[in-house]
């Protein structure tokens, strides 16, 4: 059963017990471009208490560098080497795990952030933001010649999704032998300041259905994302806490990694889902309304 934080002592104890704090972004720090109340103060408290702060997001629309710009714009202190996104995890997976030859290419269903991370890993790509693929014109298969050098299809959140991209991705996956099917993440929904929208999982779903097979997922809860963090950040899992708003990504990611987990209710998951009559089988160690609740340690009620 998840334990709800409700006293000054409980918030103090959590801060004292954990040296490394991994934070999800959408639904924890912000919703779309709207900062969630109390986030800046609490991150400052943790930094002043010499806690290691790391950001782990499944949102593949931005690269780590473009996330740094978003943090700056929202007034949140963050450094590029503290930021880990599913686009970065996908690029590292392709270059270091699959080791696709540099002569090969990736067909992208996704946005600029994913392309930037692929480029930074020296991976050639087509599709993505290419205007030729961002069209509402009907797709004519008889006019399409698959590029034989495409060795993988990677699918992330793409707000410009269309039938042409789905068709080309599908064609590469059925015609190029051994073509890898990768999803940056499979979140079903995406929390914005105006409400919920379809998530990256809803973008790769038509391909999963058409192919009858699932992609390799590199974002949370997969271990690929934690391996990316571990490769750059030293931390003791026993003294590390994962803070997130979604059970089947953030909390499962923490549990899979042997970390302690804290659920906040400012994003996807409602309290009903953890303490209601039919609670989720994914149980966080702790939960609280919002990250901002930790301000109590410096302004006791
Ligand atoms: O659809 C998506 O990609 C997700 O909803 C979104 O990106 C989640 O981001 P996170 O909460 O992991 O920062
Ligand atoms: Mg989230």
Automatic annotation (TrEMBL):
It is an enzyme of class 3 (hydrolase). The keyword Secreted does not apply. GO terms for cellular component: cytoplasm. Substrate binds at residue 220. Its cofactor is Mg(2+). InterPro entries: HAD-like_sf, HAD-SF_hydro_IIA, HAD_sf, PGP_euk. The active site is at residues 24, 26. Pfam families: Hydrolase_6, Hydrolase_like. This is 4-nitrophenylphosphatase. It comes from Hypholoma sublateritium (strain FD-334 SS-4).
């Amino acid at each position: 059963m998840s334990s709800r934080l409700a006293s000054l002592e409980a918030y103090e104890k959590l801060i004292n017990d954990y040296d490394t704090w991994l934070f999800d972004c959408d639904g924890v720090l912000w919703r779309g471009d709207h900062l969630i109340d109390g986030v800046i103060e609490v991150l400052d408290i943790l930094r002043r208490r010499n806690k290691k702060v790391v950001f782990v997001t499944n949102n593949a629309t931005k690269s780590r560098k473009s996330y740094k710009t978003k943090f700056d714009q929202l007034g949140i202190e963050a450094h590029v080497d503290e930021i880990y996104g599913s686009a970065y995890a996908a690029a590292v997976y392709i270059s270091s795990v699959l080791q696709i030859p540099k002569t090969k290419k990736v067909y992208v269903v996704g946005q600029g952030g994913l392309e930037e991370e692929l480029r930074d890993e020296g991976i050639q790509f087509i599709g993505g933001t290419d205007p030729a693929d961002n069209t509402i014109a009907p797709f004519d298969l008889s006019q399409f010649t698959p590029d034989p050098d495409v060795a993988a299809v990677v699918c992330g959140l793409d707000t410009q999704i269309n039938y042409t991209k789905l068709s080309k991705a599908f064609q590469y996956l059925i015609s190029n032998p051994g073509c890898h099917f990768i999803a940056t993440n499979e979140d079903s929904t995406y929390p914005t300041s105006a409400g919920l929208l379809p998530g990256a999982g809803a973008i790769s779903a038509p391909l999963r259905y058409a192919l009858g097979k699932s992609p390799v997922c590199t974002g949370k809860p997969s271990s690929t994302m934690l391996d990316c963090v571990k490769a750059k950040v030293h931390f003791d899992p026993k003294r590390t806490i994962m803070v997130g708003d979604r059970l089947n990504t953030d909390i499962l990611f923490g549990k899979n990694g042997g970390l302690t987990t804290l659920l906040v209710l400012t994003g996807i998951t409602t309290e009903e889902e953890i303490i209601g009559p039919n609670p989720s089988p994914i149980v966080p160690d702790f939960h609280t309304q919002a990250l901002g609740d930790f301000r109590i340690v410096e302004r006791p009620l």
